[in-house]
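Annex B. Sample input.
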Amino acid sequence: MPQKTVTQNPDSLYAESQDNAFLGYPSSPSLISTADPDFEETPVSVAKVSLFKKATDKSTRKSQPKRSNIETLLVGLDLGTNSTYVQIAEPGAQAVEASALIPTVVGYSRPGILPDVLPGNQTTFFGDEAIAHKLHLDLVPPLKDGVIEDLETARDFLAHVKERIGDSKDTEYRAVIGTPANAGSQAKENIRLALTQLFDKVILIPEPFLAALGSRKESTGTDPVANSIFVDIGAGSSDVCLIQGYYPSSDDQISLPFAGDTVDRIIQKAILAKYPDCGISVAKCREIKETYSFVNGSKNSVLAPVMIRGKVRRLEVADAIDTACNALLEKIYQAVRTLIMRADPESIPSLLENIIITGGGSMIPGLDEALESLLLEEGFEGCQVTCVGDSYKSKVAAGALIAANQADERQWQNLLR
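Annex B, continued. Sample output.
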């Protein structure tokens, strides 16, 4: 895989000129990297593609010939620790052309698997197919705590995503991708490296900001991009972002390595302490969390069925869930409180009415009411906290498509293809 030479710290872009920016996003020439000097763009209507194209075994990535008179396809990508949501659309289109939710996991066949055990004798599977055949695969998650941990596996996974989108030498693929708030330079560079030779151009934007963009159409109150705090609770990280009509600076964002995966591990530790012989897995604890989660002791008893040595036992797990979910609540509360204190005092009354929780963690029943109660106890009068509901899955990708349409040409980073 070719390596790019990084000549400037991407984080320094926040200090660049804000002229000609969309929503304050910097349009500095330093956003451009490894451009093809002979590349010419002539946008035309893009051909239809399918996100649900049948994927084959591990793809071979080859350099594409020089292209001219190309079409353009925009890709909004929420690359998550546990799941990835992707939307595609033509530039300027009012509707999404296709979308898909894909578990972020790659399965590699284990040594010694007999012929015809795995479909087509494939050696690599992705997403739901990998999970379906996990008995005969080593499952490898490309991301941990919201950032790429295994670069080669991430490239394999993104190649699969790209294959489902389509791969035409006559199409330029531009992707806007959500990143954890305050993601470091290396985390961003790993995303660019994973995308190299797959996509043509990319912009990386914090996930809470994209979630705010993706929520504008459904907002009935204050425009979430004008004045809000977005709390994006994912699997690997919880990102809290102050959004007040411009692209957020590092001081406007807090990223916590305490999110869904941490809650799962706390639940597992508590259950194992109470039932040492149960051997419960993190995956089962995630299932318990997604089925029975609550905050503030709103349930006195939760009996969860767990398979132990071939027999189903019902374990009392209410205390474990309460401990884990309340620990998450406290972390979120402290981060939201910090950002409120950083906001312009005159903006705070309106800001308090627009605190929005998204991401998988927003599905914890009562989390919005519990956070609102803590803020009211602190003296933040008039605060209103809402959860976006099950539609959280599409918010970041939808915002990414909006950002892609608003981006100035100079804001796209060129990738080698």
